[in-house]
User: Fold this.
Amino acid sequence: MDVLNSFQEYLNSLLLYIQLTDLPNREEEMATIIKTEKLKKSYKMGKLQVHALNGVDLEIEEGEFAAILGPSGSGKSTLLNMLGALDKPTSGRIEIDQIDLFELGDKQLSVLRRRIGFVFQFFNLIDRLTATENVALPLAIENVNKKKRHKIAEELLQTVGLGKRTQHKPNELSGGECQRVAIARALINKPHFLLMDEPTGNIDSKTAKDLMRLITQLNEEKNVTIVMVTHDTKIATSAHRILHLLDGKILSKGDY
Ligand SMILES: Nc1ncnc2c1ncn2[C@@H]1O[C@H](COP(=O)(O)OP(=O)(O)OP(=O)(O)O)[C@@H](O)[C@H]1O
Ligand SMILES: [Mg+2]
Assistant:
């Protein structure tokens, strides 16, 4: 019976993949990988309505390194969470790989989320796990065997320059190193793109510079599409394109 159940589960997940890759209107040319139209997000706070996003239209091309620059409270994290399918907008459209997120059910959304690498502002690493175990976690959830997932995790730690820190736990690593572990973890599912929320927010400027070098390298050499949120103008200049966000809106060129 167990065998039958797991076979059924396997079939279900296969079906989800097929549905996702076979959805209509998917063009052969995959140039635009993220698109939003009139994206709005409001929060109700008692009688008060907070408009965190006020109609955001943006397009991110495959292979791009885009920075979203804006002051505190401008809606950067809110926007990034929507792009990562971690939260739903109040209105508007989001397309990822030309798939309209509103057309997907919860299960399909969770499959889609695996295509997206997310680096959180405060690392979100698990303290009692080693760097390798932290990076391998998404594969553990998918029941990839330990030897295989640790091998992949160690290779990724090597890529981010932490080949000698694989057995360290987060409290035995510096802030910059923790951020690298978080980046390696975000890369483990071979995501279509990487979303980063203030990747340099909690580290000193020298470490931030090294980290930006790594991010640029991932983009240029490994062809990873990157959307990075920051409030730091200097950090944003590493990107190909800077989108200015203010009061939940992307500013047009003449406005800044
Ligand atoms: N869950 C929530 N409930 C109510 N208001 C919220 C919620 N999340 C965010 N906001 C409000 O929405 C606005 C945008 O918040 P957001 O976190 O996106 O800003 P941010 O640009 O990421 O800021 P920071 O640079 O400080 O991280 C803020 O005014 C914030 O107070
Ligand atoms: Mg934020």
The chain has a mean pLDDT of 88. The beta strands are 32-45, 48-61, 65-69, 91-96, 99-100, 116-119, 193-197, 225-230, 241-246, 249-250. The radius of gyration is 19 Å.
